[in-house]
Amino acid sequence: MASRRPTQSDVARLAGVSRGTVSLVLNERTNGPVPISDATRDKVLAAARQLGYAPNPVAQMLVHGSNRLIGIFSYETVFPYDKNDFFFPYLSGIQQEASEQDFNVLLFTRNHNRSKPHIYHNGMNMLRLADGSILLGANPDRGELRQLVEEGYPFVYIGRREVPGCEISWVANDYKHGSAQATRHLLELGHERLGFVGPEPSFEPQEDKLAGCRQTLMETGRGELVVLPECPPEAGEVLIHAIETHHLTALLCDSHKTFIESLHILQKHGLSVPDDCSVVCLTTVEHSQPFQLKPTFVQLNRRMLGITATQLLTRQIAGDNTPPHQAIIPCELVIGETTAPPRPQPQQ
Fold first, then answer.
1. Which residue ranges in the chain fall short of pLDDT 50?
2. Which of 17, 111, 215, 318 counts the highest number of beta carbons within 10 A?
């Protein structure tokens, strides 16, 4: 039979004080209307250690009004445990800032590896275990986000996400500026006919990347942008045909996936990068780079984004009742070897 868990009454008997005194000491309320001496405090703590007493976290929460827990929930089907996962650096930043602010981090992973993770189970918000939560994932359930707002539950989304009819707090990479920088870089190299490669824009980051490219073309009054569908390597003829039909000399790739696929397709069809076609990735290129060329890409500061999201969330938890906040984290264009001036056209 397991031994009985020691209680505050047990600590009080061993220390020779009242149970109320034990409660005040263990809840760090020794400077109240009836001050508790350092000697008494030390005696209570020594008794608690001797007995192996551990406070009840639910009781602690009721006393302090907070359990010092920040939740992390992902709408991705696989929780980002792996350090090579796109979302992992966000978690690293969250953990760093949570520790700085004396919060623990709680990972909500119960319903992952299913077709669609969800926050509500049998009508109940499982995030309530934490004081507030940071949410992430490409395609959230916007109905659940609206429900969280209606409940008044504190949360911050990683990535710009719009919820019709209400406003939420979010922190996002400045994809628009990063894509504008990438487009300007290609124009300065002499490229005039550019292709944007990616799936049909279906969520905010894709829209921001495309908007950044178009903004630069409009501001400079130069160049033309053709939007191309994402093509797997086995259907690469579609991309090659588009490049030839529109006389494209450079590609702007929406994601790391489309960047790698485009490089494979160009190589397979005998086109040299960057001589025949320059290629830019509009997001961070992960470490698993299968080509010898150093990529030209938009570097995201994902760790800082996680830190900033945590700062916004802890303000909410502390009772900041101002309207929802949004923060945009700068990106930086890293120029590598996948971009160069276009090959000179033969004289007619």
1. 1-2, 348
2. 17
Class of domain 175-300: alpha beta
Written out in words, the top-level CATH class of the domain with range 8-64 is mainly alpha
| Per-residue tokens: 249 | 């000399």
Which sequence spans correspond to the domains of the chain? 8-64, 69-173+303-330, 175-300
